[in-house]
């Protein structure tokens, strides 16, 4: 159902910090032209934590409108309150979104049983396909493969975005969940190795600024042309790493602005613009990747 290079899309903001919907339309066109396989709208890279509920819903719906059926749109619906994640999932029911991506609850650090009950409640409240999202480095909780396996038995929980960078989990998850359970990397630096180990694709930050290279690389990888894919990945590796020199999405929004993909690199507090000391490193990575002349 979902494979290849999927972008964790940034949400463009104008100078006043309001959502730039014209800029959003341009980003959608950029990804369609580049061959991106799906768009995640208002995931964590899309600053879901600082958009209002109304903005969150509108950005997803506008992304759907701009996509106009030409590319699947996955809605970010995660929250650290189960009722809030359920509300988002219900709001997108019947809208045309291809699936929901729901991050593990952050800060409250639920137990494995709590994680199971959280996702079970969401899945039972909607008919939409659900993709789990495990990113311990940002949420302070790690959803273990055994918990994922329990959740995989629920019909509309169809896959996971795994940002642990632990490649051993690909095989473990496949053994526990079966080959049809979709495994997507959430870590660009290990994304290609994730697919080589049996994963299905990546939900990528790098794809925001190197969409065509990422799309080509994962098409090659999924067709068995790993060596050709590795050539592209080696060129992109400095970018994969440097886009996290400060908290995501600070560097990638600055980079997208430098490339003219968005008019402003604006973020909402508590995130601030990329520091002057980090800017040369991001510029160098863009040049090394041959994304910036």
What does this structure look like?
- The chain is of the alpha/beta class and 293 residues long.
- The protein has a single domain (4-225), classed as TIM Barrel.
- The protein has helices spanning 21-34, 53-67, 82-91, 112-124, 136-139, 145-152, 168-177, 188-196, 211-222, 226-242, 250-258, 279-288; strands at 4-8, 38-41, 73-76, 99-103, 130-134, 157-162, 182-185, 201-204.
- The chain has an eight-stranded parallel barrel, surrounded by seven helices.
- Helix 3 (82-91) runs parallel beside helix 4 (112-124) and helix 10 runs antiparallel to helix 12 (279-288).
- The longest helix is centred in the last third of the chain and has 17 residues, at 226-242.
- The relative contact order is 0.14.
Give a short overview:
This protein has one domain: TIM Barrel.
The end-to-end distance, rounded to whole angstroms, is 36 Å
Number of domains: 1
Count of alpha/pi helices:
12
In spatial order, strands of the major sheet run: 1-2-3-4-5-6-7-8
Give the biggest sheet: 8 strands, parallel, barrel
**Which of globular, elongated, flat, extended, rod-shaped describes the shape?**
globular
CATH superfamily: Aldolase class I
CATH topology: TIM Barrel
As a whole number of angstroms, the C-alpha radius of gyration is 18 Å
Our estimate of the beta-strand percent is 5-15%
Tag the structure with descriptive keywords.
293 residues; alpha/beta; TIM Barrel; eight-stranded parallel barrel; 8 strands; lysine biosynthesis; EC 4.3.3.7
Could you give the topology of this structure?
Elements (H helix, E strand, L loop, with lengths): L3 E5 L12 H14 L3 E4 L11 H15 L5 E4 L5 H10 L7 E5 L8 H13 L5 E5 L1 H4 L5 H8 L4 E6 L5 H10 L4 E4 L2 H9 L4 E4 L6 H12 L3 H17 L7 H9 L20 H10 L5
Parallel strand pairs: 1-2, 1-8, 2-3, 3-4, 4-5, 5-6, 6-7, 7-8
């Amino acid at each position: 159902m979902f494979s290849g290079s999927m972008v964790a899309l940034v949400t463009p903001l104008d100078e006043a910090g309001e959502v730039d919907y014209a800029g959003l339309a341009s980003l959608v066109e950029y990804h369609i032209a580049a061959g991106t396989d799906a768009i995640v709208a208002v995931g964590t890279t899309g600053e879901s934590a600082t958009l209002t509920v109304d903005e969150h819903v509108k950005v997803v719906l506008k992304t759907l409108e701009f996509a106009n059926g030409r590319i699947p749109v996955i809605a970010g619906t995660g929250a650290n309150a189960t009722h809030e994640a359920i509300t988002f999932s219900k709001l997108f029911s019947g809208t045309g979104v291809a699936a929901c991506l729901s991050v593990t609850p952050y800060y409250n650090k639920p137990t494995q049983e709590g994680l199971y009950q959280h996702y079970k409640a969401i899945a039972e409240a909607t008919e939409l396909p659900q993709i789990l999202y495990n990113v311990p480095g940002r949420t302070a909780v790690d959803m273990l493969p055994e918990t994922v396996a329990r959740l995989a038995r629920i019909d509309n929980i169809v896959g996971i975005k795994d940002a642990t960078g632990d490649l051993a989990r690909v095989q473990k998850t496949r053994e526990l969940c079966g080959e049809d359970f979709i495994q997507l990397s959430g870590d660009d630096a290990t994304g290609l190795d994730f697919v080589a180990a049996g994963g299905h694709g990546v939900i990528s930050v790098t794809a925001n600024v190197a969409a065509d290279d990422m799309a080509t690389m994962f098409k090659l990888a999924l067709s068995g042309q790993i060596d050709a894919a590795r050539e592209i990945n080696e060129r992109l590796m400095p970018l994969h790493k440097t886009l996290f020199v400060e908290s995501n999405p600070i560097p990638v929004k600055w980079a997208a602005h430098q490339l003219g993909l968005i008019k402003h690199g604006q973020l909402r507090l508590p995130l601030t613009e990329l520091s002057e000391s980090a800017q040369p490193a991001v510029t160098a990575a863009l040049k090394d990747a041959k994304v910036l002349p």
